Amino acid sequence: MSHFRYVDGELHVEAVPVRRIAAEIGTPFYCYSSATLIDNYQAYAKALGALGVDVFYSLKANSNQAVIRTLAKAGAGADVVSVGEMHRALKAGVPAGRIVFAGVGKTRAEMRAALEAGIYQFNVESAGELEALNEVASALGRKAPVTLRINPDVDAKTHAKISTGKSENKFGIDIDQAAQVYSAASRMPGIEILGLAVHIGSQLTDIAPYRAAFAKIAELTSTLRKGGMKVERIDLGGGVGIAYRDETPIPLEDYARLVREVIQPLATRIEIEPGRSIVGNAGILVSEVVSVKEGVSRTFVIVDAAMNDLIRPTLYDAYHAILTVKEPAKNAPVEPADVVGPICETGDRFAEQRPLPPLAPGDLLAFMTAGAYGAVMSSTYNTRLPAAEVLVRGDRFDVVRPRPNYDHIIGLDRVPDWLS
Ligand SMILES: *Cc1c(COP(=O)(O)O)cnc(C)c1O
Fold first, then answer.
1. What is the pLDDT of residues 56-86, one digit of tens each?
2. What is the pLDDT of residue 161?
3. Can you tell me the distance from the alpha carbon of 227 to that of 243, in angstroms, rounded to the nearest whole number?
4. Tens digits of per-residue pLDDT, 234-274?
């Protein structure tokens, strides 16, 4: 059951009317549902738990402390792509031993910090990074626990900007070079080589690319073992795609069957790092209509949220369903409108020619499925205050990130003496 639904004609998140939050804290704001977060995590735990798969929530999708804490309490580890995210995970209560550090450009300072914290695993993406990590770990008198991220050269058939598993993408070690780098790793004093990692992209709705990538990883594992290498861990990367519009997500049972058939026979530990599919449908962005402008050829609904709050439509041509917070009458007419923000960019558009009921200033809209890659990508462009963030649990809601004020934002700047 969705925790975002109309009750008595008003959109609710769990038992809280969205309008009540808007009245108390103003718009725009993100609103997350605890129950949805936990349901989504449990779906992975249930589908994959029998296979002994470790779930590391990928923080980059949504790194609010309250979100991480909710998932950590449910049992999730953390997949981080910077030391900043590592600090967020630790602060939210994820033990260092439950943190995986991925990412194509880890600096030596980041490696040192993560080694000192004692994280579970580094997913290393190049021979150069491996050498640097070996040096940093050796200098600290430690051995870094490592998997090598392999680029399997598989087309994930997702948006070009979030496809990561083709050889022309910057990610991972080319599969043809993998055995050589793995063997080198096994001889490095500062490296404990433990296995392989793969992540071919985000928002996959077709299982075939996973099958192709996992098969290549299985084959590589056999090759490495024949060469006398030990392979004890396999990290399968991000989670499955989600339904923004009319996509059919890959059922987790199908994904689990694939893992059981292709990866489990290798008898390694198995890891997965879902982000989007944990938080995506657990969050909405709520905004108020500022004005409705009847142009010559189009109607523009101008709202108080903008691309600085939710950049996915601008960056990925992403579709977000738009609901009115007040439930429209069953026979309400719909007219196409462009829903736009106030930013001075034509790309600041949430929807083009979207059928919507008649709208007026003051009406509240909800951009659905905005929990992943939403708030974390926000900025202060146009000196706009980023949206507040709210977490609902049952019949209560709490602000989990207040909207900053102008003094805070402007006060980050410094004017040199020579200008005064
Ligand atoms: C982004 C990312 C993830 C999470 O991907 P989702 O599609 O959000 O589940 C997992 N692993 C790595 C290495 C990533 O870069």
1. 999 999 999 999 999 999 999 999 999 999 9
2. 84
3. 43
4. 999 999 999 999 999 999 999 999 999 999 999 999 999 99
Whose alpha carbon is nearest atom 4 of ligand 1? 238
Q: Which of 40, 79, 162 to mutate to test the pocket of ligand 1 (most atoms within 8 A of CB)?
A: 79
Report all structural domains of the chain as residue ranges with CATH numbers, in order of start: 4-32+280-410 (2.40.37.10), 103-272 (3.20.20.10)
Going by C-alpha positions, the residue among 306, 322, 313 that lies closest to residue 373 is 313
Q: What is the DSSP annotation of 90-146?
A: HHTT--GGGEEE--TT--HHHHHHHHHHT-SEEEE-SHHHHHHHHHHHHHTT--EEE
User: Ligand 1 mean position to 383 CA, how many Å?
Assistant: 30
List, by residue number, the catalytic residues.
344
Measured from the CB, is residue 126 less than 6 Å from ligand 1?
no
Does the reported pTM lie above 0.85?
yes
Is the CB of 202 inside a 6 Å radius of any atom of ligand 1? yes
Residue 335 scores a pLDDT above 90 = yes
